[in-house]
Amino acid sequence: AAKGVSYERVLVDPAKPPEDLVDLNPYASTPTLVDRDLTLFDASVVCEYLDERYPHPPLMPIDPQSRARLRVAAVRIEKDWLTEVDIIRAGGRPADAARKRLRGHLLSSVPLFKAAKFFLNPEMSLADCLVAPVIWRLPWLGVELGREGKPVIDYGERLFHSQGFARSMTDQEKAMRQVHEQE
What we know:
The structure is a single chain. By secondary structure, this protein is mainly alpha-helical. The chain has 2 domains: 1-57, Glutaredoxin (3-Layer(aba) Sandwich); 64-182, Glutathione S-transferase Yfyf (Class Pi), Chain A, domain 2 (Up-down Bundle). It is built from 9 helices and 2 strands, in the order H-E-E-H-H-H-H-H-H-H-H. A hairpin with a 2-residue loop joins strand 1 and strand 2 (38-41).
């Protein structure tokens, strides 16, 4: 959505993946991208392919050092933050500890949110595409950052008002905040 490219999104229940997804992707994981005769899976592979296939606006920095930093950040976000999100979504006793860990990850990243208009970069990048959905879901996940997390929340609010972010959300994702704000 950040590229302004038309696409068809198919929502999948991970507990019951459709047969065509299983045929296309041996892990039946999401996201899975089908572009003509090419099938890709793994979020970072899909994101990098889309950035190269549709080069404007670029979502990866031009210089190799900045690209490497962004890739390392993406791995950390996926392994640290998104793992905690999955645990919270599963519920039960482990969810409370995961909320604390996710809060800790975000608060320890406050200097990165303060350093530039976007996460790790003066321009919007793939890192923002990974981070923004997590921040959007914080109220729904029951994660409160408090005053010390204000730079994270401010960053999120800037991104939430972008056209690309609004286009990327499903009705269910939009409702996450609406339901929480009504409580």
